[in-house]
Write a structure and sequence with these properties.
Order of helices and strands: HEHEHEHEHEHEHHHE
Number of domains: 1
Strand content: 5-15%
Distance between the termini: 36 Å
Number of strands: 7
Mean pLDDT: 96
Shape: globular
CATH superfamily: NAD(P)-binding Rossmann-like Domain
Strand order of the largest sheet: 3-2-1-4-5-6-7
Length: about 260
């Protein structure tokens, strides 16, 4: 029984592409998928961080490839998918993790900031899924999009980020419906307040940080590797009848 249950989560022989997979949550997911047996393509812009992540996977006995990828550039996206196919013969798991934040008082947000955030977080996820679709449909596949607590709640200070991450949830539902016949399941992870480079400034804002921790039933920020288990579930056979949903991994923040 235990071996049968283990096989549901076994990713041996599967190929995963993780955008922004060289730091923070993306890195933790890349390492987690590799630990479950997947061959992982780390697709990101910082070549040194990518090389370090690939090396860590390989030193743990896994297989990995690093590729340069800017999700705001269509040619870069297509090149990453082609490199994945050449190296590993296909693709079964796509994790759309690459993302940036940006905001300020809404009346003062420059158009270029809005475009940069939405193009990266929302359009980038859509175009990455488009490019990967031809490979994912071969054997059936999984797409895991990264949302945010701001997918669920509004924000008066990071409107572009909130709008883009709200859009990611609707994109997840739409692709889940459209590609169900292709045996592609599309779901989203909603990270809570996780210790990353992006949230580091929040931890230095004493009153804001304290209010977040007090609201969170778990009483703390999460760690990036605490999202790996849910990502493995969504990437594995265990979730073959799960599609179009968004799972908060947030210590109860959304529930509170």
């Amino acid at each position: 029984m235990l071996s049968a249950m283990h096989s549901l989560f076994d990713l041996t022989g599967r190929v995963a592409l993780v955008t922004g997979g060289n730091r923070g949550i993306g890195r933790a997911i890349a390492l987690g998928l590799a630990s479950a047996g997947a061959r992982v393509v780390v697709a990101a812009r910082d070549a040194q961080r990518t090389a370090d992540t690939v090396k860590e996977i390989e030193q743990s006995g896994g297989q990995a490839l690093g590729v340069s990828c800017d999700v705001t550039e269509r040619m870069s996206i297509e090149a990453a998918v082609v490199a994945t196919e050449r190296a590993f013969g296909g693709l079964q798991i796509l994790v759309n993790n690459a993302g940036i934040s940006g905001g300020g008082p809404p009346a003062q947000i420059a158009e270029e900031i809005w475009d940069q955030v939405v193009d990266t977080n929302l359009k980038g996820s859509f175009q990455m899924a488009q490019a990967a679709h031809r490979l994912l449909r071969r054997d059936g596949g999984k797409i895991i999009n990264l949302g945010s607590e701001y997918s669920l709640f509004g924000s008066g200070f990071v409107a572009p980020y909130s709008a883009s991450k709200g859009g990611v949830i609707q994109l997840t539902k739409s692709l889940a419906i459209a590609w169900a016949a292709d045996r592609i399941q599309v779901n989203a992870l909603i990270p809570g307040w996780i210790r990353t480079d992006m949230t580091a400034p929040v931890e230095r804002m004493e009153s804001f940080y304290r209010s977040i921790v007090q609201r969170t039933p778990a009483g703390r920020f999460g760690e990036p590797d605490e999202l790996a288990g849910t990502a493995i579930f969504l990437a594995s056979m265990a979730s073959d009848f799960v599609t179009g949903i968004s799972i908060p991994v947030d210590g109860g923040y959304a529930a509170a």
